[in-house]
Amino acid sequence: MTSLSPFHLAIPVTNLQVCRTFYRETLGCSEGRSSDHWVDFNFFGHQLVLHYKEKTSEEAINPVDGKDVPIPHFGVVLDMKTFESLSERLNEKGVTFIIEPYIRFKGLPGEQATLFFKDPSGNALEFKAFKNLDQLFAI
After folding, report:
1. N or C: which end of the chain has fewer CB within 10 A?
2. Do 114 and 126 contact (CB within 8 A), yes or no?
């Protein structure tokens, strides 16, 4: 794979302080610039901005592998060791999974570990790790 550029994503949160603590202490993201209405985070090398919004929208679901995948969702592809470490940290912090960590496409192209959970404002996150990162876009 070629070198990737960091993405920038801004998401709404209903309680900036609670979410700020969650991203910093539960996910281990470091803070950047901020104001009383938004805060930047280093989200595994990408720029994530939490913006205060009084109410967030309802989400939809899409059935995948017999599981209800929340739409929209976002996350990061990690290496397997980092994925396992994050999964352990989420368990230790008492995070409730929407979809518990599991392996998709076992023994097939694109084999990957994946998990889903929500932040305190209900934003759905997915983290995954590929057995072989070169198969990120495998068919």
Report:
1. C
2. yes
Name residue, tokens 């709404």.
12
Number of neighbouring beta carbons within 10 Å of residue 133 = 13
**Bond into 120 cis (ω within 30):** no
Do 78 and 40 meet the contact criterion of CB atoms below 8 Å apart? Answer: no
Q: Which phi and psi (to 5°) does residue 50 adopt? A: -95, 125
Give the per-residue pLDDT at 31: 97
Q: Which residues have CB under 8 Å from 120's CB, separation 6+? A: 13, 15, 18, 19, 22
Strands 73-78, 124-130: parallel, antiparallel or unpaired by DSSP?
A: parallel
Dihedral sign (CA 91, 92, 93, 94): positive
Q: If pLDDT is split at 50, 70 and 90, which confidence band does 64 have?
A: confident
Residue 11: both structure tokens together? 């998401």
